[in-house]
């Protein structure tokens, strides 16, 4: 099979003809045709190299030879379903279990993950999705908790105990459900919110939520589909950032698990597994846990270890975060930088007091980076958070390159908008237009550091809360 | 990776420890460990060869070298999501479209198929699944139509127009839903029922159902996950058996599509695709339509053509069906033989008048065949239908082998039970016990041939109807 069969225009035409119009391409006005990829780089039909800052699915790097070899060799030998015994299945389950708290010992192998985009029952629990529906209606059995967002949420860096405050919100939802005579099945959250805007919940939040949920007879489900497998650097799983004392009842994993091969897994406790069994429903998945998927999954784990990709995520992620924090010092548009390992977000705002989302500017940056052959995306409820989740082999040179380009683009945008840093306002030529108010001085949010707030910020926070409710 | 890492007992122990207890193995008291497979044969850890009559997923044969090569080569080059343009995606869509009526032109690539086992919304529409639940409750928005089963259903071979009668049942459901103020979204059916007992609906049934459903504003969904891709021999898709004039609104395809690689597809009309788009919901699937899956899908189509597997299904399936029909002439336990291509069922009954399902006998056959290294399964609501859906490279020699073994096992079982063919009853030694009644003479059902029925059969049919309601 050759890498390209059709001229790009023909590919686009055929796509319009035969692929569902609900299936979007990146950069729809001039989509990219990628014909090969290696590590953190993708190549288009003309051999132009793109730096990939977005494909977390290609976890250990695109087309990793060890993963390809493991998959190809197993395909030659056998690919069948899990109703036959196979050692790859049990070995892989054993290896996954070894990365988790002991209690999480029972695996269900799947091929699609807990991806929220496809079926009504999962769309129901995903505000990110159900808000897209023209006639969106929140399911009566779903209660959406506040995003534990310390930058833009109801309780922020300046709050004395945001973990408790956000957990109390969950408890309130539980109480309201109880008042209506409903029981609580489960609380589900990404261990770090990705599409929700690269949100890092305060440590201790999950423990407190779990207490409330368990007391109500429910389970705690940690969704590690986007953030697991060493990405956060210090730990293998993002829920472990909450503290050693936190163990979810169910962990969902997907995307990076197979480096692009369609596979995923749900791990739970013996207790939950037995309860599921007692429902009487057999669980069978035609593809889940087949020998090829497991061989690939094992190879991914091997590469993470062998190449110390978790360590690389810690080092390069830290480096990238520091570079972006320097951008925050320099560029008024960068309102917040937050990250753990190679899961990093930079939230753009037009105004550091009102936190007005710089949505158009974020899109502009994404498009301009694309023209310079860097793939980045913007996400979050306001689509104003630059979202870094590159393959785990991302290097400091890559970080330098992307931040250097962002620096230049931000400079250009801010120049066009007349935005300046508050601290430098008095030294600049007064002829430039500015929207920022004097009150914003001293209000630079920085991740993980609590600081006092002034009246205007409190006002903005309250406004924001009303808008969200 | 070696084919075996652990002794079988260790594999079983690890499986018990780490794999969900709802995940069953075949032959749970002595499961099979398969370490490699080729064509229609699987091999255990001791090199023992099993003839595979059940793995329809390995459609073009286990570990087919052309499919493996296509997958491995594309994995080396690129595996990424469908938000980038790629020629494999559009070429594959084009190739699939070419097998379908022109109207069915828009594809959604998925990685899991319309498999009914996993999510509540699909379990709801699958009586096969929701009846497994301890506290089974049929969703109020789901209406289960009669199985268009000409052997055991409400309207049989002797009915003057079973297609109309079964379609009228669907229309009655629609009317009842309307009376309750409900609208009708869709009718979904496997084009041939597989887990439902290898049921072949009478030709013209789908057209009539589609008329009723369309008039009510609903869509007709043909589920080809188990029965598509040339398996029925005369046609590429099983719904085409209904006649040239029938075109579903949506076709779901899975399992055989990737010969074991996790992939599937939904194809629909431009009209339906535009309506879905207008819901406002983007459709994205992390894995669906990736270049590796599409390369594999293309290779599967190539092999079907190059090796004329559809033709083989027609020839060998016909041969197998004839062999089984000979078994029906010989063995009272074989109540019905029905099939299209390499989709064949043999329904076992203890009594050809009452149609008492020979469930235990079917299980016995499956277990005895397994001891003789042949993999077959029994399915249907009574688990009494021997279900043939082998890889499409199945040969006449394979058919001879399996039917020869079945013949011997049936002979042994019937001897033990004292069952004899009605026509030979007067020539046999009268000392054998028999359950069959003299009235059954002349009541042998044969697939596709209408015949008169006597009073006792009518009575049995009515009984059966009451039992089902």
List the helices and strands and how they pair.
Two copies of one chain form a homodimer.
Chain A lengths: L7 H11 L15 E5 L2 E4 L4 E4 L12 H13 L9 H12 L5 E7 L9 H5 L2 H4 L31 H18 L6 E5 L14 H11 L3 E5 L26 E4 L10 E6 H8 L13 H16 L2 H22 L3 E7 L2 E6 L10 H13 L2 E2 L1 E3 L5 E4 L7 H22 L37 H14 L1
Short structural summary:
Two copies of one chain form a homodimer. Chain A has 469 residues and is α+β, with helices and mostly antiparallel strands.
Question: What are the key terms here?
Answer:
469 residues, homodimer, four-stranded mixed beta sheet, Aspartate Aminotransferase, domain 1, alpha+beta, PyrdxlP-dep_Trfase_small (chains A, B), 2 domains, 13 strands, Aspartate Aminotransferase, domain 2, PyrdxlP-dep_Trfase_major (chains A, B), transaminase activity (chains A, B)
Explain what the structure shows:
- Two copies of one chain form a homodimer.
- The first copy, chain A, is of the alpha+beta class and 469 residues long.
- Chain A folds into two domains: 65-306, Type I PLP-dependent aspartate aminotransferase-like (Major domain) (Aspartate Aminotransferase, domain 2), CATH 3.40.640; 309-425 and 432-468, Aspartate Aminotransferase, domain 1, CATH 3.90.1150.10.
- Chain A has 13 helices and 13 strands.
- Chain A has helices at residues 8-18, 65-77, 87-98, 120-124, 127-130, 162-179, 205-215, 270-277, 291-306, 309-330, 359-371, 396-417, 455-468; strands at 34-38, 41-44, 49-52, 104-110, 186-190, 219-223, 250-253, 264-269, 334-340, 343-348, 374-375, 377-379, 385-388.
- A five-stranded mixed beta sheet of chain A has the order 4-8-7-6-5. Chain A has a four-stranded mixed beta sheet with strand order 1-2-3-11. The first copy, chain A, has a four-stranded antiparallel beta sheet with strand order 9-10-13-12, with helices on one face.
- The longest helix of chain A is centred in the last third of the chain and has 22 residues, at 309-330.
- The first copy, chain A, starts with 7 loop residues before the first helix and ends with a helix.
- Residues 424-469 of chain A have low confidence and may be disordered.
- Chains A and B meet through helix 1, strand 1, helix 2, helix 3 and strand 4 of A and helix 1, strand 1, helix 2, helix 3 and strand 4 of B.
- Chains A, B: Its main location: mitochondrion.
């Amino acid at each position: 099979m050759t890498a390209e069969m059709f001229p790009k225009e023909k590919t686009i035409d055929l796509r319009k003809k035969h692929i569902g119009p609900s299936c979007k391409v990146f950069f729809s006005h001039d989509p990219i045709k990628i014909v090969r990829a290696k590590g953190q780089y993708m190549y288009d039909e003309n051999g132009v190299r793109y730096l990939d800052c977005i494909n977390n699915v290609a976890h250990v790097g695109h087309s990793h030879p060890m993963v390809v070899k493991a998959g190809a060799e197993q395909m030659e030998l056998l690919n069948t379903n899990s109703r036959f015994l196979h050692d790859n299945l049990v070995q892989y389950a054993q290896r996954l279990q070894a990365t988790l708290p002991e209690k999480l010992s029972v695996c269900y192998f799947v091929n699609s993950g807990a991806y929220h985009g496809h079926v009504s029952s999962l769309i129901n629990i995903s505000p990110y999705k159900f808000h897209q529906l023209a006639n969106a209606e929140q399911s009566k059995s779903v209660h959406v908790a506040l995003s534990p967002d310390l930058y833009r949420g109801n309780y922020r860096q300046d709050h004395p105990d945001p973990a408790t405050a956000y957990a109390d919100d969950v408890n309130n939802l539980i109480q309201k459900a109880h008042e209506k005579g409903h029981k609580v099945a489960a609380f589900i959250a990404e261990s770090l919110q990705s599409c929700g805007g690269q949100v890092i919940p305060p440590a201790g939040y999950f423990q407190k939520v779990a207490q409330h949920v368990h007391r109500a007879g429910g389970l705690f489900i940690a969704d590690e589909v986007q953030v697991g497998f060493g990405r956060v650097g210090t730990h293998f799983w993002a829920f472990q950032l909450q503290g050693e004392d936190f163990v979810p009842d169910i962990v969902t994993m997907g995307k990076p698990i197979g480096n692009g091969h369609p596979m995923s897994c749900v791990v739970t406790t013996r207790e939950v597994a037995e309860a599921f069994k007692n429902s009487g429903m057999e669980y069978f998945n035609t593809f889940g846990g087949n020998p090829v998927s497991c061989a690939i999954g094992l190879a991914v784990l091997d590469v993470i270890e062998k190449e110390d990709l978790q360590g690389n995520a810690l080092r390069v992620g830290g480096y990238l975060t520091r570079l972006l924090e320097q951008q925050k010092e320099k560029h008024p548009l960068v309102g917040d930088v937050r990250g753990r390992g190679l899961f990093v977000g930079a939230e753009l705002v037009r105004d550091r007091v009102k936190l007005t989302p710089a949505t158009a500017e974020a899109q502009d940056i994404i498009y301009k980076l694309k023209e310079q052959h860097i793939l980045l995306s913007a996400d979050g409820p306001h689509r104003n958070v630059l979202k870094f989740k590159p393959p785990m082999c991302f290097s400091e040179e890559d970080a330098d390159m992307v931040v250097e380009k962002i620096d230049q683009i931000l400079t250009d945008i801010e120049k066009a908008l007349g935005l300046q840093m508050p601290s430098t306002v008095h030294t600049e030529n007064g002829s430039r237009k500015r929207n920022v108010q004097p009150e914003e001085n001293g209000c630079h949010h920085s991740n993980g550091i609590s600081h006092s707030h002034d009246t205007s910020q409190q006002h903005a926070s309250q406004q924001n809360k009303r808008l969200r409710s």
